Amino acid sequence: MQLEKYKIDEANQQKAAAHQRKFDYVAGEVANLDDVMEKLAAFNIAIPSWALGTGGTRFGRFSGGGEPRSLEEKIEDIGVLHALNRSSGAISLHIPWDIPKDAKAIKALAAQHGLRFDAMNSNTFQDQSNQAHSYKFGSLQHVDKAVRKQAVEHNIEVIKQGIELGSNALTVWLADGSCFPGQLNFRKAFENTYESLEEIYAAMPDDWKMYLEYKCYEPNFYSTTVADWGQSYMYVNKLGPKAYTLVDLGHHLPNANIEQIVSLLMMEGKLAGFHFNDSKYGDDDLTVGSINPYQLFLIFNELVEGMDARGMNHANDLGWMIDASHNVKDPIEDLLQSVEAIKIAYAQALLVDKKKLVEAQLNNDAALAQEVLQQAYRTDVRPLVAESRLRAGGALDPIGVFRSLQVRGNLIKERGEKTVATGL
Ligand SMILES: [Mn+2]
């Protein structure tokens, strides 16, 4: 379904006066208002094709009804999101869950909704029914050359599909590793993986990037062959200028200082971008900002500082994507909340008084440095983010409009109560 613009405008009318009061109040405090509004408008976050259905755990999956049954319907759902928040203008495809049958038609449908194709994601963490060799004991690391070859060829196939869709990045996340001590020779696993990545790297066009994602554990529980940012950095540094390290917020050991990781990867020009989510204990894939919004702000503070230091374009020079799962919420509402949380943290980071912060750092004034950061963090920037949406034609209250227009109810009528989207 496509949301009609006039219905969003009608809903905005009812909230216009209250919004204007709140916006004027905070806007009066922001010295660089035009710059902040311009950057907020440009900042989009890609939605992965596997995030439109209800997520499951290894214990079960409880479908919410009206889930997209095809890639076309997934694109329509992201179209709904983008119409409401004007900040979800890209889709990240997962192969083979979402293989376009007709790339041209899919590209045209996405364009109709104002969407472009972000990074392509390969999958060698599951076996597909038509494949010759199993990934039970790894893919790019496997002791058997034939398995490695199959995994390399799959990644090259994903690149080819991405070229047709106008994507320019490949995200590689490996489940490779081991569950028990002694199972794997760490050095040989690294060497095999590196050799496989080299072959994939060689197949990428010159204007493409490889994003190598790391994860400390799960599904393997003793070792992971790309376990942390240091290991990912070793691979991408050896591979060459088209390879970068991708940070997924949930893929660290508890309490890792992710903002410091981000800062140093950017210093080396090797940060690919982000998979956003939030977590309490492990790779929980919860709604962005639902558990630890202060950490998200501190990460964005480093991102903005680092991008500005390198003269980078905030919106385009790094890859921004949500990688979350929705076990108990409506997927579209959950994604609206995640995008909102990201834009709030970004807006707060744009408000940091950098001059004052640098002074405090040079004077070893830890108290003032904290004051500067928390002044920005504790500013209610929601009216700025809402104003940015309003100016772009989106909704002041995206979830409110999603509910009042009964979007989910209509999707259930259209698609049925018992539909299950492909994905995890
Ligand atoms: Mn991820």
TrEMBL record:
The keyword Isomerase applies. Keywords: Isomerase, Manganese, Metal-binding. It holds the Pfam family AP_endonuc_2. This is Sugar isomerase. Gene3D superfamilies: Divalent-metal-dependent TIM barrel enzymes. Residues 100-285 form the Xylose isomerase-like TIM barrel domain. The keyword Ubl conjugation does not apply. GO terms for molecular function: isomerase activity; metal ion binding.
